Amino acid sequence: MDEAHEIDLAGLKTRWNDILDDLESTNRTAWMALFDGRLAAVDSHTVTLDFSDATKLAGGHGFERARRPQFAEALSQSIGRILGSPLRVIVTADD
Q1: Which of 12, 62, 63, 78 is deepest in the core (most CB within 10 A)?
Q2: 67 — phi, psi (to 5°)?
Q3: Which domains does the chain have, with CATH numbers?
Q4: Whole-angstrom Cα distance, residue 80 to residue 33?
Q5: What's this model's pTM, rounded to 2 decimal places?
């Protein structure tokens, strides 16, 4: 079993900056849409980013952009490059 399937939330958080750096270098638009997300959960197949607190940031956050499937796919690919296996990315927020 590879590292991505063994990682827990704490482990993902330790590698998160590396993942975001990779995303920024490969798809800056996706990085801009997703970097404000809070890591909420991870399992062997999925990582969940929560944008519930994004409205508290100065200037807010365009959450609709974060929901774009191509951005989640770009983040999944960055996770795969850093951890060895991609994870499905789910984006959530309180409505």
Answers
A1: 78
A2: -80, -5
A3: 3-92 (3.30.70)
A4: 19
A5: 0.83
